[in-house]
DNA sequence: TTTATCTATCGCAATATTACGATTAAATAA
DNA sequence: TTATTTAATCGTAATATTGCGATAGATAAA
């Protein structure tokens, strides 16, 4: 136990959950908002922006990288991170297909 | 440790993370998709739709209820669940302010 | 070369999540 | 009243997540 039973759900459901889960932490939201604000590669100074230790931030960056939301490139001694356009499009579509598929109807309880 | 340091982030960042986190499990995605497909109150038969035990599903419903995404009402011996229009609107706006705020630019790595 | 800088990873501890069976509680049906 | 049905909650076990300090590795600067 303690493990999500992914096998019992569709690939689409698992992918949605995976992406939303990656967004499900304030530090990762903060990282993404910072990258969006900069609107380009951000080299090095993410650690200065967050109230967490370097190792913890590195871990959060890794999680975002693993699901594809951001990508990183070595620039000399620094790492440059940015939003991955392709996955961001996937996220946008996924999100729209979920959110917009519900028509607000006021029919309920 | 093991606890998210919510105090160090803005209320908006924490709320976003909280909502995305609630969506970050395939069972909860499946529940929401089912409610949307029905497009009305769903009384009783959620347990038949998912490959998880009754108690586990009850827990997932509780989490969705806690962040406000769904609401439930007692109908006799059954529980009726549906999407909460108000929070769904909040979710929509939140997405706009995050997902749509990034203009794909191809400027990066 | 040596030193400084930056980031990933390791190891650990604390807490959270996932899942299930058993039980409880509440409403309906017999 | 006594079943029966339905869903929440309790207790427990296994695994995952969060966070940090310490360390390692790689590049640049002196």
Provide structural commentary.
The structure is a homodimer of 109-residue chains. In chain A, strands 1-3-2 form a 3-stranded antiparallel beta sheet. With 109 residues, chain A is of the alpha+beta class. The longest helix of chain A is centred in the last third of the chain and has 15 residues, at 85-99. Chain A has one domain (12-95): Arc Repressor Mutant, subunit A (Orthogonal Bundle), CATH 1.10.10.10. Chain A has helices at 11-22, 26-38, 46-49, 54-67, 85-99; strands at 42-43, 70-75, 78-83. Chain A contains 5 helices and 3 strands, in the order ααβααββα. Chains A and B meet through helix 1, helix 2, strand 2, strand 3 and helix 5 of A and helix 1, helix 2, strand 2, strand 3 and helix 5 of B. The structure holds a DNA duplex (30 and 30 nucleotides).
List keywords for this structure.
5 helices, DNA-binding, alpha+beta, three-stranded antiparallel β-sheet, Arc Repressor Mutant, subunit A, homodimer, 53% helix, 109 residues
Write down the secondary-structure element order of chain A: HHEHHEEH
Radius of gyration of chain A: 17 Å
What fold name goes in the CATH topology slot of chain A? Arc Repressor Mutant, subunit A
Strand fraction of chain A:
5-15%
Please give the CATH class of chain A. Mainly Alpha
Oligomer designation: homodimer
Strand neighbour order, sheet with most strands of chain A: 1-3-2
Which stretches of chain A of 5+ consecutive residues score pLDDT under 50? none
Shape of chain A: globular
CATH H-level superfamily title of chain A = Winged helix-like DNA-binding domain superfamily/Winged helix DNA-binding domain
Overall pLDDT confidence of chain A: 93
Q: What's the total helix number of chain A?
A: 5
Please count the beta strands of chain A (DSSP E, at least 2 residues each). 3
The tally of domains of chain A stands at 1
Q: By helix and strand content of chain A, what is the structural category?
A: alpha+beta
| Biggest interface pair, counts | A-B, 53 and 54 residues
- The CATH architecture category of chain A equals Orthogonal Bundle
In which range does the helix fraction of chain A lie?
Answer: 40-55%
Summarize the main sheet of chain A: 3 strands, antiparallel
Question: What is the rounded distance between the termini of chain A?
Answer: 35 Å
């Amino acid at each position: 136990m303690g493990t999500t039973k992914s096998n019992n759900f569709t690939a689409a459901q698992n992918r949605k959950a995976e992406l939303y889960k990656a967004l499900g932490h304030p530090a990762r939201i903060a990282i993404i908002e910072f990258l969006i604000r900069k609107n380009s590669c951000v080299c090095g100074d993410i650690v200065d922006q967050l109230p967490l230790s370097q190792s913890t931030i590195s871990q959060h960056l890794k999680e975002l990288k693993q699901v594809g939301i951001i990508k990183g490139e070595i620039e000399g001694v620094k790492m440059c991170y940015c939003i991955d356009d392709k996955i961001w499009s996937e996220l946008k579509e996924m999100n729209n297909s979920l959110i917009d598929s519900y028509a607000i109807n006021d029919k309920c309880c």
